[in-house]
Amino acid sequence: MADARLRRAFGGRRPSGALLGVVPFFAYVTVFLVIPTLVVVFGAFVGHDGGLTLANVRALGNPAVTSALWHSVILSAVTAVAGAVIGAVLAYAVSTGRPDGILKRFITSLSGVLAQFGGVALAFAFLATFSAEGYLTKLLTSAGLNSNGGLWLYEWNQGLMLVYLYFQIPLMLIVFLPAVEGLKPQWREAAETLGGSTFVYWRKVAGPILLPSFIGGLLLLFTNAFSAYATAAALVSQGSPLLPLAIGNTLSSEVVLGQENVGKAMALEMVVVVAIVMTAYVLLDRRASRWLVR
Hints:
- It is found in: Cell membrane.
- This is Putative spermidine/putrescine transport system permease protein.
- The chain is mainly alpha-helical and 294 residues long.
- Helix content is 69%, strand content 0%.
- The protein has one domain (63-290): MetI-like (MetI-like fold, Orthogonal Bundle), CATH 1.10.3720.10.
- The longest helix is centred in the first third of the chain and has 33 residues, at 63-95.
- The chain is globular, with a radius of gyration of 24 Å.
């Protein structure tokens, strides 16, 4: 009887012992994703007295919070669009190389590393290069080509955008390269046989096929920048112009006290935005996968 119930739970199939291999994964997801998400969701609706309240959610309408959200959206959108366009062009250039060539393997491997190179280490690299005491800033200053001493690096709408592009472009190359390589030479040959030019091929064949993958990659880059924290925290020390920094300020500031649950409400706001964007990404990726051989 117990065996029959177990088979019904797995859709009529006998469970395999190989399923035990995913237990650590589900344990990891539970501890580091499910439980923190539940803490954020419930904490956003709990007041100082432990009772339920909507005051934390209403606090999201404060000018400081809306300004931080708007800045985060602008930063994420700009770096996502710029990273997607540059990364897509690079992905096409890489796809034209020899499949087993050293240059192609080097670029894809390097992109895999750079896409994950963020946080304090990346911020330090830019500080050592572009800050007021950076070697490139001193070099330009000595040549009379620099007037602000590298202060632009600490602005969220200048230096931080440049730093984010450092990992956004390689990430787009990795995500978009399989879609570009999925274009079959027969499709171009068929277009040329029918009298179509290169422009017509890209406008009516390659463009529509690659568009879902391009938009999906753009959404992934938006989410990547929207949720980044360590790099921004290392570079932007004045105020909390971005939503992740504002959340960190409510949890660690020695000046702003008793705002922990407001921070959880802001985190819930980020979860909603990321969930909407990732849902659109999954739908686009499912549509684009019809053209890819996996």
